[in-house]
Amino acid sequence: MATSKLTIVVPAYNEEEVLTSSVQKLLAVEDQIAAQTVLGQRADILIVDDGSMDHTWDIIEKLHAMTSRVRGLRFSRNFGHQSALIAGMSEAVKTADMIVTIDADLQDDPDKIGDMVNAYADGADIVYGVRNNRETDSWFKRTTAQGYYKTLKLLGVELVPNHADFRLMSKRAVETFLQYPERNIFIRGLIPKLGFKTAEVFYKRTPRMAGESKYPLKKMLAFAWDGITSLTIAPVRLILILGTLSCLLAVGMVVYAIVMKMLGLTVHGWSLLMVSLWFVGGIQMISLGVIGEYIGKLTTEVKHRPRYTVQTILD
Q1: Long-range Cβ pairs for the range 296-304 (8 Å, 24+)
Q2: What is the Cα 271 distance to its own chain's centre?
Q3: What is the pTM of this model?
Q4: In what order do the strands lie in the sheet with 98-101?
Q5: What pLDDT does 272 receive?
Q6: Which of 11, 17, 269, 285 could make an S-S bridge to 84, C-beta 3.0–4.6 Å?
Q7: Can you give the pLDDT at residue 134?
Q8: Same structural domain for residues 161 and 272?
Q9: How many degrees, rounded to 5, is the angle at CA 222 between CA 219 and CA 223?
Q10: What is the structure's pLDDT at 266?
Q11: Helices 217-231 + 234-262 axis angle, to 10
Q12: What is the pLDDT of residue 252?
């Protein structure tokens, strides 16, 4: 354990307002861990610039010039947060024994990294950072997040509640994770499938020091949908169930109409008929949309396009 190396992977997109102070804090955290003789001096930070449009890369270059403990990786354009995490882990695993991923805004508590390292020393290959509250989130975000976790659970998806992408992974856990080749990937849902020994470290999430969230509502909804479609085919099965129920309902209405006719009663219900037609039509359109989504993702997978393109590496 005395020779273990830690690399902290930090995905960054337009984070010029917080990046310098965040790196200083992370370096201080690494120094504190080193003082406990757990790491010695073998610790560094790898910042992944996800195609930032501001001065994020310029700051990374300056930090790298100041200390070799800060490394950088720059995408040719914006490929997304999940791709930035994967790129960082792919590069870090070449030299690191354990890898921590944390967002550049440090809303996740970096002081808990020491506890994660201790859990790793006790034998855990994956250590989840779990929020013990969501006070910094709006009522809407808290409510929708809880609803999302419950929905995924109903769909049979294993997910750690209130865990985002703040975690520690051992070298072998990262190497195993990187064997998953899919492009439509939802990291926090895929990690529990690895099967290694896990631990949890709880922390209080804090507000951003500066700048704005890079995850507006539209992006969060798209991310949530990607999580569902990448981990389960339950929506397609739900379509089958709805279709079956609609057919049974139609058969029941036909039987009802025949019985009424035999009894000499007139069957009224043009309004009900139109509502039924619109209802079935709506189900069909939704069904086509869901199936089309899966076909589109399947098309992306079979093309085997790279997840990202690296423009520059500062090592």
Answers
A1: 297/184, 297/229, 297/230, 300/183, 300/184, 301/182, 301/183, 301/184, 304/181
A2: 45
A3: 0.76
A4: 198-203, 126-131, 163-170, 98-101, 6-12, 43-49, 70-75, 310-314
A5: 66
A6: 11
A7: 64
A8: no
A9: 85
A10: 67
A11: 80
A12: 77
84, amino acid identity? A
Residue ranges for the chain with pLDDT beneath 50:
1
CA-based nearest residue to 125, from 167, 83, 180: 167
Same domain as 203, residue 104: yes
- What is the C-alpha separation between 83 and 106, in angstroms, rounded? 19
> Tokens in use for 259?
């019985």
Same domain as 260, residue 146: no
Whole-number Å distance between alpha carbons of 46 and 88? 7
CATH code for the domain in which residue 115 is found: 3.90.550.10
Q: Is 161 in the same domain as 117?
A: yes
Residue 187 one-letter amino acid: I
- Its domain, for residue 226, covers 6-232+310-314
In sequence order, what are the residues at sequence separation of 6 or more whose Cβ sits closer than 8 angstroms to the Cβ of residue 313? 71, 72, 73, 74, 91
